[in-house]
Amino acid sequence: MAEGSAARTGIGSATGSGIGLHTGTPVRVRLRRNAPGAGISFVRTDLPGSPAIPADLNHVVAGRRCTSLREPRSGATVKTVEHFLAAAFALAARDLVLEVDGPELPAGDGSARWWVELIRQAGLEGVDLPGAFLDADVIVTDDSSPGTFIAAYPAPVFSATYVFVPPYAGEAALLAEYVHQEGGASREYFVAELAPARTPAFVDEVASLQREGLGLGGTIDQVALLGREGPANRWRFPDEPARHKLVDLLGDLSLAGPLRARIVAVRTGHRHNLELARRLWPHLGARS
């Protein structure tokens, strides 16, 4: 698959096209401003009435290997939104409309870099807002996957650590971190060090996933491929899988809004990330 294309169409908007990672569907997008305070929404321009799907926890639905949203009245859905949401989070781009003419966002090169470029081409970067303070520890575990957990702890600034544990015996865990800093340092760190990291994939599962209808639009160049003897293609970073999983985490947690907390995640996927986001809500206080 080609990485896709993007073109600036004027201040406040940009267009792009590509192929969905899982569906393999060609898709076009147009990014533009939303009304102040309206947040992020996806508009399915290919469906009757062009229904809008708000990007919030109330519209999250179960999805395999991606984060999906659904608007219940129209039944409209959009999937694989996490990379776009992570880029919007890191660039403080909040009030956005992403028009899309298919069921899945384009994959770009398998990373969040394509979305960073689209947001910047549209001139839609924002300014950081204070995050909500967390008033208690919030921890999510998974009895079906020993060693998997994600937790949020009260902290003066937002930070996140992701620990990627390969499924193959003898391979070392990989760690990636993000710490919010004022003045743009964390923004540029995300752009240079996290956004280019591609989706991790395992040699042993590629064929079975495609038989299940996943990864139909992907190629080996769009993933950080891992086998029993280590990297199975050229990685962009020595810890690329951990960096990408951290990007996924940032995108998923952005659905809870800006917050001040210390996040630690080990072996988690979208299901765990989103469960933490839901459990955070009762414990988020004032923003200052």
Note down, in words, how this protein is organized.
There is one protein chain. α1 packs across α2, α1 packs across α5 and α5 runs parallel beside α6. Strands 10, 11, 12, 13, 14, 18 and 19 form a seven-stranded mixed sheet that branches. Strands 1-2-3-9-4-5 form a six-stranded mixed sheet, covered by helices on one side. The model has no long low-confidence stretch (mean pLDDT 91). It contains six helices and 19 strands. It has 288 residues and is an alpha+beta fold. It has two domains: 117 residues, lpxc deacetylase, domain 1 (Ribosomal Protein S5, domain 2, 2-Layer Sandwich), CATH 3.30.230.20; 156 residues, lpxc deacetylase, domain 2 (lpxc deacetylase, domain 1, 2-Layer Sandwich), CATH 3.30.1700.10.
Provide keyphrases for this structure.
288 residues; alpha+beta; Ribosomal Protein S5, domain 2; 2 domains; six-stranded mixed β-sheet; 6 helices; 32% strand
